[in-house]
Amino acid sequence: MVVGALFTLLSPIQNFMYAMVLLFGINFLFGLVAAVVNKEGWSTKKALWFFAYCAIFFVTAAAFFIIGHFMDEEAQAIAVVKILCYVAIYIFGTNICRNWLNILPDGSAWHRMVDLIYYVLSVKFIERFNIVKRWQEERKKDED
Q1: Cα 57 off chain centre by
Q2: What is the rounded CA–CA span in Å between residue 107 and residue 51?
Q3: How far apart are CA 36 and CA 42, in angstroms?
Q4: Taking the model in full, what pTM does it have?
Q5: Cβ neighbours, 10 Å, residue 80
Q6: Residue 66 in contact with residue 9, Cβ under 8 Å?
Q7: pLDDT tens sequence across 67-89
Q8: By C-alpha distance, which of 88, 97, 90, 93 is closest to 16?
Q9: Is the pLDDT higher at 119 or at 82?
Q10: pLDDT of residue 29
Q11: What is the DSSP string of the chain?
Q12: The pLDDT of residue 19 is above 80
């Protein structure tokens, strides 16, 4: 009964959650295939951390929506969940492209295409600007 009530409460963000399940599933699949292709094998620890991060995402998204709902700001709560989903799409999409690169044979047309997509998504082209390079170097020095 409580679970049904919770799902009913979360029904306005149901499609976002389905989309994130699909995204996380694709990410898991590409990571698994990349590990097999690169002869890393199965890592239970990596898989458990992945599922823990997924759970954190879903609990965070649900919490944002529920809090917004009870503050009578449901439209804004949906907007926050939507932004959170877009951030996840960017981060996990970049990771999917990185794993996809590790699966594809070097020099193939698909490898070059995915490499370009990964280059753009990971904002590697920004590193060509001197100010960004200096910022990264200073940040690395601060971490050491």
Answers
A1: 10
A2: 33
A3: 8
A4: 0.79
A5: 16
A6: yes
A7: 999 999 999 999 999 999 999 99
A8: 88
A9: 82
A10: 95
A11: -HHHHHHHHTGGGHHHHHHHHHHHHHHHHHHHHHHHHTT----HHHHHHHHHHHHHHHHHHHHHHHHHHHTT-HHHHHHHHHHHHHHHHHHHHHHHHHHHHHHSPTTSHHHHHHHHHHHHHTTGGGGGSHHHHHHHHHHHHHH-
A12: yes
Give the closest residue to 65 by CA, choosing from 83, 54, 53, 81: 81
CA distance 14 to 62: 10
So what's the pLDDT on residue 97?
Answer: 94
- Nearest-angstrom CA–CA distance, 89 and 96: 10
Residue 119 pLDDT grade (very low, low, confident, very high; cuts 50, 70, 90):
confident
What tokens were used for 137? 């170097």
Quote the pLDDT of residue 75.
94
| Cα–Cα nearest to 24, from 99, 97, 89 | 89
Q: How many angstroms separate the CA atoms of 83 and 85, rounded?
A: 5
Residue pair 77/68 in contact (Cβ under 8 Å)? The answer is: yes
pLDDT of residue 127: 67
